[in-house]
Amino acid sequence: MPEAILELQAVPPKNTRSLGYPGPLVHILAWTLVGLLAYGRHVLQCGDVVSAKILGPELLMWMSCFWPAALFGALIFQCEKRFPLGGQRWARNTAVLAAMGVLFAYVACQIASHVCSGVEYLYGFPPAFSWAGWGVSKGELSIQFFLFWIVAGASYVFRHFLQLQNREREKTELLLEKSRLQASLKHAELEALRMRLNPHFLFNTLQNISVLTQEDPRTASQMLTRLGDLLRTAIRSGSEQETDLATEVRLTEAYASMEKMRFGERLHIDFKIAPETFGAMVPTLLLQPLLENAIKHGLQGVSREGFIAVRASRENSQLLLSVKDNGIGLAMDSPAKKNIGIGLGATTQRLARLYPGESQLTMSGSRDSGTEVRIVLPFRAAPAPRERHDQAALAHC
What global pTM score does this model have? Predict the structure, then answer.
């Protein structure tokens, strides 16, 4: 079962790509838009008709109030990330950010005053600022301090948005990984059941051939040839959990031909498969163990000729399969019934895992009518050859 183990370990790497913090260009564009809207509101509120000659310088001086927040916005975001608001150490972080806000406000006031002074000088306007040296206006300082906290608050909201997005992404990845692991585990369990089934069939056949080598070497040689053909077919389809019913019937007929060599005229096996069911999907190696049980437990110790009927039909959305023999049948307290139940246990488990809640395996019979094993499966048509090839390619990616 090494392939199943490798599949459990081969979990695709996580997608670590996620939305990041906005860069300087985003901050510049955002605050430029805010400044333009604020200036437009100012012009409309004042109702003054200004000339284009005055509008340009006035807009530049107005925007100088917002540009520091645009230039340092990305840095403020990183500071709030380093000292997050609302965390366990919120008091200390708030104090640190407040100190940074005072420093930012002072630097922002200096930038705004120098920009305004430069605009006044270039356009020949009288100086409007009377700050001495590196002093600043308390009003302007308060405005810039307020803008700092607006940026810090936006960082707080954006950081929580990123955390929520990351949690949702991680939750989705965990669900996908859980789904992949469940599918791999299901495949491994089915492979384990198949590993229990296939050697059982092979050992029984080899034992029969071993007996025939003493009694009928020619028949034993023919059985070995048929066994080789059967194993080639089984190995070809062994990597797939399901196959179409036509392939499954061919494989079961090959097994039936070997058993007829051993029993001769004592055994008659009749296959009646409805044509519309040949394309239905069934578990690989489903019919062979049913036929083997019918021969081993149904005809064992019977002197008369044995008849086994293998049937397949469709009823609406269900596929009906049955294997019926004319053997000794089963009493409710018969030890043979318990042995057959154990023999069919692997098949029952496979059906439960492949078609949870949609499959059914029942066994009925009496000493007068023999035994019948009946299986009900959901009818699913086999995909087209091209589609099956694509699915196989994807499964090996």
Answer: 0.49
Q: How confident is the model at residue 221 (pLDDT cuts 50, 70, 90)?
A: confident
Instruction: Sort 315 into a burial class: Cβ within 10 Å, 0-12 / 13-18 / 19+.
Output: exposed
Say whether pLDDT at 129 is over 80. no
Structure tokens at 19: 């939305």
Which residues are CB-contacts of 378 (< 8 A; sequence separation ≥ 6)?
Answer: 317, 318, 319, 355, 358, 359
CA distance 299 to 130: 115
Q: Output the pLDDT for position 9.
A: 35
Domain coordinates in residue numbering, the chain? 24-175, 240-395
Classify domain 240-395 at the CATH superfamily level: Histidine kinase-like ATPase, C-terminal domain (3.30.565.10)
Closest CA to 148 of 94, 203, 105, 205: 105
